[in-house]
Amino acid sequence: MRLTKPLLLAAAAAFALSPPVSAAEERPSPQLSATVDGVVGEDSQELSIERLDIEVRRHGSLATTEMTVRFANPTDQTLEGQFALSMPKGSIVTGYALDVNGVMIDGVLQPRDRARVAFEKRVVRRIDPGLAEVDFSDRFETRVYPIFPKQGRTIRIRFVSPLDTGQRYILPIETSEVGNFSISIRGITPDSRKGIKWRADGANFIATGNGEIDGEIAFDAPVKDGLTMSEHPGEGAFFELSGETPTGAGDSSKGALTIAWDRSVSRLDDELVREAGLAEKIARELGVSSVRLVLFDSGQAEIRNVAVKDLGGVLGNVRYAGGTSFDGLAKALADSNGTCILFTDGRATIGNRENLSAAGCRLVALGSGQESDRAWLEGQARMLGGTFVDIGGAKDEEVVQLALTPSALPTVTDSNKRAVEVRALPAANGRYRLVGPMPQNGELMVDGVAIRASSPLIPNFTAPGALWAAQHIALSRDAMGSEELAEQARRWSVAVPGVSFIVLETPEDYVEAGFVPPGSYPKDLRARFDQIKDQQEAIARDFDQAYRDELIGYWEARKRWWAGPQRNVNKSRADAAVDAVTEEAAAESRPMAPPPSPIAVSQPPPPPPARVTGGANDRLESDEDRIIVTASRIPQRLQETPVGASAVTDEEIEIAGDVTVEGIVGDGASQEGERSNVSSGLRDDLRETIETAEWSVDRPYIAAWAKAGPDWPAAVANTEKQYGSIPLFYLDLAEWHFRAGREAEARRAAEAALDLPSKDNQTLAIVAQRLLRYGDADRAIWLLKLLADTESDRPQPLMALSQAYAERGRRTDNRDDIVEAQKIMVGVAMKRWEGIYEKVGEIALAEANALIVELGGQQAEGVMLDSQFVAALPVDVRVVAEWNTPRTDLDLWVREPSGEEVGFSNETSRAGARYTHDLTGGYGPEEYQLREAPDGTYRIEINTFSVDRRNPNGPSVVTVRLIRNFATDSQVEETIDVEMQPDAEGRKLIGRIVID
């Protein structure tokens, strides 16, 4: 369920229990590394910190920190610097700046993926960009490029932090050699407990020096009960309210207990043994004899009643599989009463998080992982009278006490008794700390009593507003697209996961990236930006019109090709060459065939016809892998049924003569556990069978799974420890399950890949396609919508989304899905994309017209394509190649029976084939089509021309769609996925189509 509106009481208490454990204590901070020219693997140890300046300011029980770092590059090489800082727990980054030509330029918050693309484009072009990102673990990271030889760069970051439950601030600083450093604290006396020597400087304290730093910035700041006010720039006054919790809150030490246990792969690095022990201790403290246990991940939730004496053992034997999803959790908790304990990190990787407010129990969320969405967990727990407890560094008895102690926050309203949205910050047991926006009339009511600030002075101080905004955004982010999320982050100047700060070098860079410079941008540069932007918008309008004209030209050329003479070359290559010369000589005297008629229908459209779709052939490691599809060509427009087709591997080529249109015989027979899709209602002599060849990938863990037999769960768990850090492991596991007939396990394994830190948008795209093939079109569509939103600058995600809708519509006989698929594909065709995708519109028009055929023709309800572009253009053979990596140039080649090769350097053949699109910048599609296919063998090959990088999803995977009878009601399609090793030379044989 999407959150449709902000909640009035979006507050929650975050108990960072004493003794506090900062993420900074787990690894040195700050960390500095570098690569030569930004090339992964080309590491440099020479980048150093020339100067470090830190200023900390305390107001109430909150702090702001500003850190300025000057890097020095003493080498003769250009470096890309990576700087990471572990901040105090619960911190929010509110500002980032980078020097450009000696001027500090503030970063602008943009959707993470758009910011990354803009950064990487400029690294390639040696332009000055800076990128700053945060995650859920209180860790800040920035990439700076270029740092020129013998020069330096400067960054500045700002963040806000709540003091811990003991009212203490700790920022460990551990560095190698520093040229000079200066540290200043305002408004509080620092400790001198470790490594840093302070001296008074008026109302401030400072520390200066050089060399290595191994210390910490720390202070205690006891705060009096009451109200502290501050001004958030552009958003008005905010308050911090602290005091003792109201008495008589009731007793939660009795009643039923529900344990909701997240068993997704993301939990494997949590303190699971300790969490299981805490669950048992809470149950015993409550005095219950049994527990209602809800085990959930992206698969089907499992609910069982477990005796308390068995609880530890049951939780200790949980198998962690699947991604993180909260689908169905709200319903499971709605059937509960008493106390519910939720063990999770709160970070859904598939599906929108459900609002848990309808649960029938008091909810306490416990987390031990480094990356937890505290803001969301806090808000959900607070709505149900509970709290979020971060168990890191706390004693078990403290956790149990807090889990069983009812939360008792005061009621906060304005003078008209309207609830004020507040956020609760970490507080000691028996106390509370709240932040929120001050009502416009300046009157705040706490439990019905008016309360005012102790001082009339309201300083500018961003911490309360930023901390409040972070939770406000977290509770509604699932209902936001990436641009809306970035807009909200910019409004409050808070860097939340999924949104990044970026600095670009020139006004032209901002225009090109589609970003608006920061409000602090120098006036002369802003004026230049506005001028360039106006010019570019005018040019874009002209380009949009020019694109439509260009698309008309491409489409008319395609129609002329389709209507032109189709040469049959079922003869020798020499004879074919003679025929070609004769044909060319006669071309001018022969009248041109009429163009294809628009698709028409004279009766209400039938439901979408069923299509036969084969599975992927994933024999990925051998250069000898191939597919043969045998068929007989039937003249276009006379076809009444699909032609026969069978798929076999290279090892089966010798028996290809035994493959008949009735099915596969001999060694080509279907293996146990394989899928066999057979069309129905066909003549016996034209019955079609599409078989998926046996899957074989030479990776060591797959052999271990197969050897284990029925004990495969243990084998998976063992290999997971060594190989489970990259998505490829789970993608292989998914296919292994699928081939064994375990489709539910296949889906869980594929979704598990989304839980890994190393996953990226390529992972998301692969998982979506796997889920579509494994039978879950709904989640595939959800993922592809997300991908289309985050990568809106390229057409491929939308094309994949269209195909997913169409596939779901065919499976469920849902015409509305076919209409939606056509709508999306039409949108792709009519939009002007970046130059490298200039011919994608033509391919999208072909796909849209095929969908119109399914809908019943041009006059059918729901058809949205301009009649100027409606023409079915059916073809006998169509091959479309796409791949999953950017900055990768793969080339599709088809060798026809005559021996002629069709590809980017030979776009047409004597047989009448046409090659559409050579896409050199990544993803595809590239298309081969032949209206009337002569008899013989068609070799489909892919050449790896250039590869940008290896990635955690494995080598580039090319997806090849082999389509017979395209844009007819008897269309048949086989999809093949093949790995392309980056160091492989020459072409790889993908498959063969044999027509006789």
UniProtKB/TrEMBL annotation:
<protein>
    <recommendedName>
        <fullName>VIT domain-containing protein</fullName>
    </recommendedName>
</protein>
<feature type="signal peptide">
    <location>
        <begin position="1"/>
        <end position="23"/>
    </location>
</feature>
<feature type="compositionally biased region" description="Pro residues">
    <location>
        <begin position="592"/>
        <end position="610"/>
    </location>
</feature>
<dbReference type="InterPro" id="IPR011990">
    <property type="entry name" value="TPR-like_helical_dom_sf"/>
</dbReference>
<keyword id="KW-0732">Signal</keyword>
<dbReference type="InterPro" id="IPR013694">
    <property type="entry name" value="VIT"/>
</dbReference>
<feature type="domain" description="VIT">
    <location>
        <begin position="33"/>
        <end position="161"/>
    </location>
</feature>
<feature type="region of interest" description="Disordered">
    <location>
        <begin position="581"/>
        <end position="617"/>
    </location>
</feature>
<dbReference type="Pfam" id="PF08487">
    <property type="entry name" value="VIT"/>
</dbReference>
